[in-house]
Amino acid sequence: MVQKRALVSVSDKTGLVEFVKGLQAANWQIIATGGTQKLLEESGVATIGISEVTGFPEICDGRVKTLHPKVHGALLARRDEPSHMEALQQNGIGLIDLVCVNLYPFRQTIAKEGTTMAEAIEKIDIGGPSMLRSAAKNWNDVTVVCDPSDYERVLSEIQTEGNTKKETRLELSAKAYTHTAEYDMCIATYMRKAAGLNEKLFLEYDLKQGLRYGENPHQDAKFYASMEQVPYSLASARQLHGKELSYNNIQDANAALNIVREFGQTPFCVGLKHMNPCGAAIGKDGVEAWTKAYEADKVSIFGGIVATNCVVTKEMAELMHPIFLEIIMAPQFTQEALDVLTTKKNLRLLEVDMTSAATQQMQYVSVNGGMLAQQQDMETITLKADMCVTETKPTDEQMTDMQFGWRIVKHVKSNAIVVVKNGRTYGVGAGQMNRVGSAGIALKQAEESLAADGIDIKQAGLVMASDGFFPFGDSVESAAEYGISAIVQPGGSVRDAESIDAANAHQIAMLFTGMRHFKH
Q1: Dist. CA 449–CA 443, nearest whole Å
Q2: For the domain 385-512, what is the CATH code?
């Protein structure tokens, strides 16, 4: 019986020695390259150097060592094709039955700050992908291993059956092509960025979990995670309790985290339904922030999602516990808080990384037959007094409230209007076909909320924020009817003068930011 041969050449040497020793114990001959051979020899594993197989030395600082017919002929020859086997015999080429290869750490190299292109290029593997592709193409006869997590399975089959199963080789072939595709995509992205090319878009996501269904039960859905680890991300969140997240949960939770991100370390809490905030507030601590956010809309929060940038304490947990919530997200939960909240079987509790500032990212949205890409809307202008366009000037208190409203309204579906006071929302008008309709919803909600506390809205001095400009003066007129004292909006309408005149007529202070925040 001809002794089987394995070719081993890896950058990630995790578990390698044990794997190769297992192959050797099964009477396999080991061929190895460079550093891999050195490690194996030092570990007591007898190997054959690649140059002994090819009869040709490694050259060009190791750039060329496995690109040789005695390697690729040994991998690509079909065992069931007589002419292939005859060609090997005529050229003195022995078969290679298994390839164990993983690639130079290109991704890890370019992730390091200060890496030069010359350094990156030296981590572009040529021989490794070539061997993987050759072995994977001939999967019917050759086993290809690129992931150390497969060592145990491969070794077990060889030890019990003398070789890997055919279905295993097919699966490993697909895995090898995935590995080389991801590798080349990473290199291509890096080189294309350096060359200023953008007519292609390469995206890489790994399956995080299957979902029971999508937006509706008849829709299949899955959750994929980016390779990049970023703060305020569900992909890297740690679920402490509760049933699995659904498609709609993930959409809503992501929207909530984007709002929390606006407030950094200022104690903040938001309740959210259907990707729109139903109540949001800042406070001196988490308890106050939650209490104000809940009081902003006690009806809509039912079955909603809560996100806070505060550690959830026992006191906060006891306030949240009586309310039906789907998810609570925070940077941390105390053990006492967990003791309270985990008594609710289905309540999902998620710890989310909020320790660092979020970095600019691209946002992708699929459309029929295509993909839209844009930078996330992470910029928020700091309001200044000189943005005022009216005769009435805002007070410091109004400026603070407008800044709060401006940070919230950018996360409400357009057309969006929010009404705020003292660092909490009183009314949210979302997604209407005209802006005056959204204003009417927000103002009416605010009126009802204040009336429940015995307060006349006209005396409350509320502040309004709009994500887009007012096309007519009617939104300002509506605001005046409810006693709005100050308005912040982008400006830029051809009829801005109408809105300014209406604000002046009602002694309303109004700021133009020059930046809109549409959210579709």
Answers
A1: 10
A2: 3.40.140.20
